[in-house]
Amino acid sequence: MTTTPPPPPPAAAGEAAFMAGLRDLKTWSGFSFRQLERRAAAAGDVLPSSTAASMLGRDRVPRAALLAVFTRACGLDEEQVRLWAAARERILCPPGGTPPRRRAAWWRPVAAAVAMAAAAALAFTGAPAADVEETVVVTSR
What we know:
- This protein is an all-alpha fold.
- Helices cover 55% and strands 0% of the residues.
- It has a domain at 15-92.
- Helix 2 packs across helix 3 (49-56), helix 2 (33-42) packs across helix 4 and helix 4 (64-73) packs antiparallel against helix 5 (78-92).
- This is XRE family transcriptional regulator.
């Protein structure tokens, strides 16, 4: 970690600018993704290096919990973590505005259609109910 102060959250609105700020924060920290993973684990948090790397490779704002763990692992104190969380909220829920719409994952309707087709196929085969195996898929947003 460096002796210069950490970069503040970007003042400019927009997900791309926010994510560029997070990439700057990681650079400021001087830690590799593996070191961030170990620092998070030492603090009792979970931050797989692959998750941090893929998060910084996108221009979409991360979930609040992931942001908090990442910023702590980079070496920020709780007040600085709160500043980043507040900046995230300003981007996602601007004052007087409506939050940006997130597209639903493309695979959810496809998975539902496949499940319905499989259920219909089983119903029309005349297979006894005892031979049918039930699978429940639970997804969260």
